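Marked as duplicate of an earlier ticket. Keeping the data here for the record.
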Amino acid sequence: MVSAKKTLNDIKWGSRQRLQYIEMMAYYTGVVTRTDIVNAFGISDAAATKDLNFYSQLAPANLIYKQAVFGFVPGDAFSELFADLSPAVVLPMLAANLPATGSPTGANPIYGISVDSLPLPSRLPSKSVLAQLIRAIRTRRKLTIKYHSLSDRESKDNRLIEPHSLINTGLRWHVRAYSEETYDFRDFVLSRIVDAQLRDEVAESSVLYDDDWTEIITLQLTPHPNLAQAKRESLIFDYGARGDMIELTTRRALVGYVLQRLAVDTSVDHSLNPNAYQLIVMNRDEIEPFAGWAFQ
C-alpha cells in the first residue's frame, strides 16, 4: 500500500486535479465511474482506471466499488484528501463546468493583474444538504427537505420536492423543483434548506414538464426616460445595443431575477430614482405574468 503521508505532497498537478474530481463526483453525485474521468479529462480508459486504483490506495475507506452502477460510491467513513468540498467552492465550479480547482499558482495572479469581488454574505447550504440535492437531480429522485420559509406557514416543515436544476442569480443560489405540496414548479433558496434526505422513489416530474423553465422569452429594456440624453446614449453603448432597445433572452422562470440583478425600474410610472434604476421594461405586459413579484 502507498504511504499517504509520503505521497500526497509528491503528486503532480495533473494527477491531483483528477483525484480532486474523483472526490467531488463521488461525494456530490453519489458515484464516480471510469467513464466520468475519461469524459472530464480526455484521457484513456486505462489511465482513468489507474487514477481510481491510485486513489483507492491513498484512501481505502473512501470509495467502495458497486457493481450495480459500475462505479465507486462514497463509503460511510468518506473524508476528502484533495478537494475542498465546501459549497462555496463547489457551486462556482458547477456553474463554470470546471472539473477541478486549486491551481498551484495559489493567490498569485497568473496574468499579472489583480481581480477583486464584492464581499457579499455567504448564503449557502451545508455540504451534506448540497450533496443530497445534487444526487436527487442526477438520479431523478424525490427529496424530502426541511425549509425555512418566509411565508406565513410554519418554518422548517417537511416538504417533498423533485429537483431538476440549480440556479445562480449572482446573489444567491436556488434549486428549481416540483413541489408535491403546491403541485407546481418553484424555486427554493439553498441557504434556507435545513436538511435534505434522498428518497428511493423516482421523480414523477421532469424538466420537460416545467414550461417556465423550457420556454425562452425576450426582455426588452431601454434607458430610463428621466435620465439625461447623454447618459441614455452611454447606457446603450455600455450594453452594446442597437437603437434604443436592449434585448436579453432568458428562461421565463428567470425573468424576475434578471430584472432584479440589473436593477430595472419596474414601477408602472417609472417613478424610481433613475440614477439607481437606469433601465425600464418595454414589454411589461408580455413578461409580467412570469415574474409578478419583481414588478411594482
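See parent ticket for discussion. The longest helix spans residues 13-29.
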